[in-house]
Design goal:
Elements (H helix, E strand, L loop, with lengths): L1 H56 L6 E3 L2 E6 L2 E13 L2 E12 L5 E14 L2 E11 L4 E5 L3 E4 L2 E4 L2 E5 L4 E5 L2 E3 L31
Antiparallel strand pairs: 1-3, 2-3, 3-4, 4-5, 5-6, 6-7, 6-8, 7-10, 8-9, 9-12, 10-11
Length: 209
């Protein structure tokens, strides 16, 4: 009959549709299972990587400094120094004429700034500028005001020089300078005074000497 003919043609179609529907449901179920199983591991891995990165970036060691005169303020909490300033933190030594340190409300030091006749040394790298800002959270030393970086015979000037002390990298904005890739002698690291800090800066105030 015509009706039975219609039934015969619909049955394969319905069977194929049901098969596709079941397949989609199975795939959706498998996807949910995979997501529910894998997501905690991914999130945990991301947390571990974030913590590991924070640990790598976290600066270590206290900051030792000396100067001729010092003023303290409590709101916000800060320290200001003048004259013969010598500061040392781990393998970084810096000198300048004016110095300011700022802490947060909990008393944790967050940043230090050196101003005028700034010079610093770290390993075989010598640095000069008019202003240097040291961020304790990132460990970055940012030099501005005619900054210069010298390593052996290599000299770099720029608008801004950022020294990433945790990774030993330097970023220079608008760099210019002189590179000596064939230099036969490698400048040895400059010894940083240990124990009590010297009364005067052991580094030259100019990059010409």
């Amino acid at each position: 009959t015509p009706n039975s003919a219609i039934d015969m043609t619909d049955r394969p179609y319905d069977h194929a549709s049901q098969t596709r529907l079941r397949t989609r449901r199975i795939l959706c179920f498998l996807h949910q299972v995979i997501v529910s199983v894998v997501t905690p591991f991914v999130v945990d891995a991301q947390k571990r990587e974030k913590q590991s990165r924070a640990n790598r970036e976290a600066p270590t060691g206290p900051l030792d400094f000396r100067c001729d005169k010092m003023n303290l303020a409590s709101k916000p909490y800060r320290v200001r120094c003048r004259g013969n300033i010598v500061a040392r933190r781990d393998d970084l030594l810096g000198c300048c004429d004016r110095f300011e340190g700022i802490s947060d409300e909990s008393g944790q030091w967050r940043e230090f700034t050196c101003i005028d006749r700034v010079r610093a040394v770290r390993g075989d790298a010598l640095m000069w500028s008019k202003r240097a800002h040291f961020d304790l959270e990132t460990g970055n030393l940012t030099l501005t005001g005619e900054p210069r970086l010298r390593r052996g015979a290599n000299v770099l000037d720029g608008e801004t020089i950022v020294i990433e002390t945790e990774t030993d990298r330097a970023r220079v904005v608008k760099p210019r300078g002189r590179l000596e890739p064939d230099a036969k002698e490698v400048a040895p690291p400059i010894a940083i005074p240990q124990g009590e800090l010297p009364a005067t800066c052991p580094l030259s105030a100019t990059s010409d000497s």
